[in-house]
Amino acid sequence: MCRARKGVEAARGGVSAAAFPAIRGVTPAFVAALLLAGSAQAQETAGAGAVGDTTLVSDSLIAADSVSNRLSPAGAFLRGAIIPGWGHAASGSMTRGAFYFGFEVLTGWMVFKTARRLRVAREQVAVWEERVTAQLERQGVTDPAEVETELGRNEQVASLRGLVDAREEQREDWVAVGIFALLMSGVDAFVSAHLQDFPDPLTVEGDPGGTVELTIRVPLG
């Protein structure tokens, strides 16, 4: 009779408590622990995602700041044309900047040196012209045209006047070189600012094993 009743219950879909003995041992505390563990894992995942997003945003901001603070070619040209080497230094080309600055300093020194020699030559011309004019006055020659003619005939005065002309030409040449160096500094700084984003075209790398790697980068666009 009992066996028949069990068969009927099984046929109706009934499930006895003995079929799942482990379910009876599950307590509310165990369920709460599982829920807390799942919540903590979800929070950790969300926190990691937030940190990753923050890192990406900060990297983007740093890149944007670096681009915005980068010197423009026009600004590099103006700096290089005002002070040689300034535009190169602002765009990161320190070696070229030092070269143009040193060359302009040398040019300025030569202008100063030539101007000093020119002043000395003019003083010598003035001294000799006074001497010759005094001699002509003692001889009775006082007409300005005749005095000037005699000054031109004097070998020492003519030589010193030629030296003055040469010194003036030298000063003009050095001034022209200085102006040209200023323009070249500005133009070169302009080009350097344009090329500051290009990677190094040629790199050589080695490792302790003795292997040398040569890399050539060619920008295509």
Describe this structure in words.
The protein is mainly α. The protein has 2 domains: about 20-70; about 75-200. Helix content is about 75%, strand content about 5%. Helix 3 (about 75-80) packs antiparallel against helix 7 (about 155-195) and helix 5 packs antiparallel against helix 7. The protein is elongated. The two termini are about 90 Å apart.
- Based on CA atoms alone, the radius of gyration comes out at 46 Å
Numbering strands along the chain, what is their spatial order in the largest sheet? 1-2
| Global geometry | elongated
Question: Could you tell me the number of beta strands?
Answer: 2
The main pleated sheet reads as:
2 strands, antiparallel
Could you give the order of the helices and strands? HHHHHHHEE
Structural class: mainly alpha
Total domain count:
2
Strand content: under 5%
The end-to-end span amounts to 91 Å
Which consecutive residue ranges, at least 5 long each, have pLDDT under 50?
Answer: 1-24, 48-53, 60-67
- Helix content bin: over 70%
Task: Please give the structural blueprint.
Layout lengths: L1 H10 L16 H41 L4 H10 L3 H6 L2 H45 L5 H10 L1 H40 L7 E5 L5 E5 L5
Antiparallel strand pairs: 1-2
Helix pairs in contact: 3-7, 5-7
List keywords for this structure.
single chain; mainly alpha; 7 helices; two-stranded antiparallel ribbon; elongated; 2 strands; 221 residues; 2 domains
Quick take:
The protein has 221 residues and is mostly helical. The protein has two domains: 19-68; 73-201. It is built from seven helices and two strands; from the N terminus they run αααααααββ.
